[in-house]
Amino acid sequence: MVEPVPPCTIQGLVKQYGAKQALNAVSLTLQAGEIAALLGPNGAGKTTLIGCLLGFLSADTGHIHLFGEDINSLTPQTRNRIGFVPQTMTGLTWFKVGELLTYLAGYRAANTPQDNRWLQWADLDPQARVKSLSGGERQRLAIVLALRFCPDLIVLDEPVASLDPQARYDFMQLLPDYARAHGATVLISSHIISDLEKICDQFIIMQKGHIKLTLSHTMLHEHIRLLSAAPPTDWGLIPLAPGLNGGIWVSGWHTALTENAAQAGITASMPDIENLFLALSK
Ligand SMILES: Nc1ncnc2c1ncn2[C@@H]1O[C@H](COP(=O)(O)OP(=O)(O)OP(=O)(O)O)[C@@H](O)[C@H]1O
């Protein structure tokens, strides 16, 4: 059987801004239908990685393929399969909302599928000028523009920071619904980690230009634990970081160790990605 081509593969990506190394040998693969969280403190390199991945920035070395095509020679068909939500929407602000939606729809074939749930969710006045929209309204529009025509690969750079709590909550319900229904692949960067824990299959944690840890949702819940004390070395666990309030984060946990932990008086707590992220960032 022929393996499906992953929607995104990145190999050995290096990006330097003058003396500043923003990306240092970053490699990663997104599988079809996967929802991946891109996490990292300010300056970790998330926006730079996204910029390279979408071809807005050119990397110094490394390779990026989207749907099997080199990023430097994407066909228009493949470009149309990608939706991007930036941190803030700039440009095209002289349009009215309705005009802009119609104008951009003109670039699509008449039979392009549409998902109108995004328009309903955004609840924007078609007569409003884009430049008069509030920050959150503008962000809703950016989301509609990126997702309305059912992209297969969705890249979102801090999409929810300016949304109000209800809009953010509804968006976080709609995004996985959309992705699962369309089989779309999602890469979402956000500092609101608690939002991502429930919806993501993979967590990519960046630090200082490299990927510090990549974890699947299953791996996180089955093989990562916060132990109340350092385990004996013969348990074969890999230390990840000191816990914020004592103890130690480890990987390699398995249920057979529950008994050993009880006998040694060590408590093994279930992980949450936010606390693990904070411990790794210390
Ligand atoms: N145009 C630029 N010129 C010089 N340095 C830059 C430029 N853009 C980004 N950098 C630097 O590269 C590093 C990575 O920046 P990047 O914006 O990718 O981080 P980030 O993880 O997206 O951060 P944030 O969470 O704050 O958005 C930072 O140290 C930043 O100062």
TrEMBL record:
SMART domains associated with the record: AAA
Pfam families: ABC_tran (PF00005)
Keywords, sorted A to Z: ATP-binding, Nucleotide-binding, Transport
Keyword Cell membrane set for record: no
Alphabetized CDD domains for the sequence: ABC_DR_subfamily_A
Gene Ontology MF term list: ATP binding; ATP hydrolysis activity
Keyword Transport: yes
Domain spans labelled ABC transporter: 8-233
InterPro entries given in the database record: AAA+_ATPase, ABC_transporter-like_ATP-bd, ABC_transporter-like_CS, ABC_Transporter_VariousFunc, P-loop_NTPase
Name by which UniProt lists this protein: ABC transporter
Organism: Acetobacter orientalis
